[in-house]
Specification:
ten-stranded mixed beta sheet; alpha/beta; TIM Barrel; 2 domains; two-stranded antiparallel sheet; 12 strands
Length: 365
């Protein structure tokens, strides 16, 4: 049966305070409730400094979260964990927690599916579902807080690099960033938040005016239109030279260095020519290049370069005078590339009726 109660984080601060007053509770309880969510409380009953009657009223009218966990996976000796959540209405999204010596990072989803259709990305292989609401994005973060709290860790960084194109769900993403950075809720510095885009230029310009000093990440992957039209189809509408100009405008407006993401595809964009084109595009700009070895996706023609090729391409790009890092490839065992866990679970679900029909005695045992 569908639970029609709204999620508590779907209310704004003022709306929650109004509900509290209407239920004979002081408005300051709102900060207590948010504080508990920020510390990873899984239920209203866990909020033990809130009167029992109020906890009961909260449980009557709200859910502590709208997300339902479908499956969890782990990799890298439990340093990487991935969760597939079901949303209200039946769509699903993924979130990945990555633990490092000096930080804990959440890779967060902003859409169920992705409308951009990059051919090397697992997310784009399924039909686009819908935009996430702001509270559904924030709930991924509060669930990560809950998970990390059991390990004596805290969430320190958030990257909008999960399922979806964040700039195509602009209002919800910006609202979720404001709530994730709100000192009354998670209080994460905006300078520790990365918002990525495949190149929606009008939204880059809009974000520059928001006074939110988040890091902008451009999913670049190619420095010439001919190749980028294939790898990132939105390039046909917003070509690469105009994209770089908009990104530099963001850097000028915010003083924040732009990160350029480059998924390395063997024999496709890892040549010396590609390195030189990237150098011409970004030289003398406030930029950093993140090289990301391809995490193989089934039913695509692409493959990952070997270590020697990755090292050689990095040296070529550094030779162009650019700052470069090779991103630590995490979670191959956990289907941690964008969309892979969702793809596997959806494939298993679609196959399940056929298996059940073929071997009913096993399914029923």
């Amino acid at each position: 049966m569908t639970d029609l109660r709204p999620a508590i984080l779907s209310l704004s601060a003022s709306d929650l305070e109004a509900w509290l007053v209407a239920n004979h509770a002081p408005a300051y309880r709102r900060r207590q409730i948010w504080g508990w969510l920020a510390r990873g409380a899984a239920s209203f009953e866990a909020m033990n400094d809130i009167p029992k009657a109020l906890r009961s009223d909260l449980g009557r009218d709200f859910r502590s979260t709208s997300l339902t966990t479908v499956v969890n996976t782990e990799a890298d000796h439990a340093l990487t964990s991935k969760t597939l959540y079901e949303l209200d209405g039946g769509h699903s999204v993924e979130a990945v927690v990555m633990r490092y010596a000096d930080r804990s990072t959440l890779c967060i989803s902003s859409q169920a599916g992705c409308p951009i259709g990059c051919p090397f990305c697992a997310t784009g292989k399924f039909p686009f579902g819908r935009n996430l609401k702001a509270h559904e994005i924030v709930e991924q973060a509060t669930d990560a807080v809950r998970l990390l709290a059991t390990e004596g860790r805290r969430l320190s960084h958030v990257v909008f690099m999960g399922m979806g194109e964040p700039m195509a769900n602009y209002q919800s993403v910006v609202e979720s960033v404001r709530r994730i950075t709100d000192p009354d809720l998670l209080g994460i510095s905006p300078r520790r938040i990365v918002v990525s885009t495949s190149g929606l230029i009008p939204r880059i310009e809009q974000l520059a005016a928001e006074k939110l000093p988040v890091t902008l990440a451009i999913s670049l992957h190619a420095a010439r239109n001919e190749l980028r039209d294939v790898l990132v189809p939105i390039n046909r509408k917003y070509p690469v030279d105009l994209l770089i100009k908009a990104a530099q405008g963001y850097a000028d407006a915010t003083g924040r260095r732009v990160s350029y993401e480059w998924v390395l595809l063997a024999g496709v964009n890892d040549t010396e020519r590609d390195a030189k084109e990237l150098g011409r595009l970004l030289r003398r700009r406030l930029a950093h290049v993140n090289l990301i070895p391809f995490n193989p996706v089934e039913d695509t023609p692409y493959r990952a370069p070997d270590r020697a090729s990755i090292r050689r391409f990095k040296e070529w790009v550094e030779g162009q005078g650019l700052n470069v890092t090779v991103r630590d490839t995490r979670g191959r065992e956990a289907d941690a590339a964008c969309g892979q866990l969702h793809e596997r679970v959806m494939r298993e679900r679609s196959a399940a009726p056929k298996v059940a029909a073929r071997v009913p005695s096993v399914i029923g045992s």
